[in-house]
What we know:
Low-confidence stretches: 1-27, 42-47
Number of strands: 35
Amino acid sequence: MFRFIFLILIGVLGFSFNLIAQGFPNDNSMMDEIIDAEMKQVFFKTIQENPNTTTYDVKYYRLQLNINPAQRFIRGVVTIYFVPNIDLTEIVFDLSNELTVDSLVSNNSGIYSHIGNVIKLNHSFSAGVLDSLSIFYQGIPPQGSGSFVQSTHGNQPIIWTLSEPYGAMEWWPCKQSLTDKADSLDLIITVPEGNRVAGNGILTSTEVANGFATVTWKSRYPIVPYLVAFAVTPYAEISFLSNLQEGDLNVQNYVYKEDSSAVINELLATDTLLRLFDSIVGPYPFMNEKYGHAQFGRGGGMEHQTMSFMNHFRFELNAHELAHQWFGDKITCGSWQDLWLNEGFATYFTGIAYENLRSDSLWQGWKRSVLDKIVSEPGGSVFVLDTLNVPRLFDSRLTYRKGAYVLHMLRHQIGDDAFFSGIQSYIQDPNLAYKTALTDDFFNHMSQNAGWDLSYYKSEWIYGEGYPSFNVQWDQVNNDVDIILSQTTSHLSVDFFHLFVPILFTNSSGDSLIQTVWHASNSQEHRIPVGFKVEQVIIDPNLDLISKGNFSLNTDLITGFSLYPNPTSSIFTVKPGNDFGRLESYTIYSLDGKVVRNELNFDPYQNSKIDVSKLPSGIYIISFKSSSQEIIQKFVVNH
């Protein structure tokens, strides 16, 4: 049983809080909005981490800022506590050169400079000794990148920030690092009275004086700079408690006043999502603080730690940003090349929300739509080779969808128990929790829980490109079905995908059996005890594999007619049965119905070979005609 505490600041009364009765709209189309919005944020970013900042470890940030949402301007002081890893003669921090440093106050005297987006303080710092400095600055943050935005909603001004991946230094001085999380953070922001400030952590005080309000947010969990954020406008607050396995969590939502009555039921769905992820992934990572949302003016959302910024609160966006609190916030990808550890995971656990909270048809529809996008092109790896190519970094097909489906497929390769126990051990690993991880770290946990080495899977599906196309030739002998299973691959980087392949045997009387076979090589033979008359064989009936163009062929129906080897890279041998009659012609079609070859005079008894070496790799249909009948088969060319 869960409890609700509502703080409705604009006096809207008479809502219905029936969560069970509320409808969940079909938000499959939301995925493109989420991805496109995240990509647009960083489209203009070409900078990388400053290598000179690797010489020290940040312990604490305190941001004391003055913000007026009606003016695109920032003024404040940022205090940084840090420990040098080695003896230093200088220390550097990142800050856009479009902002002005008024002064730098340190426990030690020294000369500082601010050139080329870098603040440098020349002074000696001893290894292992905690030190600090304060940077006073002001100015108009750079335009165009979306890291610091001033706009309006309902005739009210708003300022909000969004820093992934390299935008933090565009509005506050910091060590812009993906891997160095500060142990704690204070956001102390002064705004004109009547405004509210959304921020990370827990709200500890609001002090009003002389027409201004000073709001303090404190976070005592490690945080990476790109997840630090604030938003300022005259928000309405809608808050409630979610009863999770470790106690009640405050879910604190800041929404536009003009939207507050319309979004309540959507916000309440957060409770259901929280309890789902809390139970299957592990305890909510920031129980001592909160989870919440702040409405802002950009499409999609952003998973700022403990408070996601949201354009709206519909099911898929809500689930995606919440899942990031575990995957991206608690454990952050340790390299932008491994961004799938953030985005692929958040996308897949959105799918798991469909599986558990929506109808089966919507869950199957979610899988179908994701798969169709993945296999729309033949290549592309989940792992990102060029992190300065922003469209590739945030590629909707690869980083998000393929990353998600690699997880779904892994789940069905090793089983639910091993998969979810692996997820939990990964997210709770003390060497990774509230720190960063790489792909190898994740697969180490999955291998341990699966009971075998998954390096082959990682190599083929994370670093490799493409996907397989499966084909089965089958015939029934009494109560058994003999199958020959083969595959072709869509990209040369992987010549064979090693997988457990589910195959459905069924008939029109309703008999059915799904048998999973280990696929280790082409033309692999299996005898499956079925126990009923089989009429149809379907590969991957529940969409648990990344594949395309799968087909099966009942050799009993071709009257002793055979075409082998299938697939081939060069030549097929044709062997018609005695009762087929004299072959007169054959025609080869592409899958879109175009005639590729038409041979009118073909006598397999004189020359049984068909050369397809000049055809591109792919799946084709061949029609053989005699004077009395026509037989159609599929075949595969794999160079």
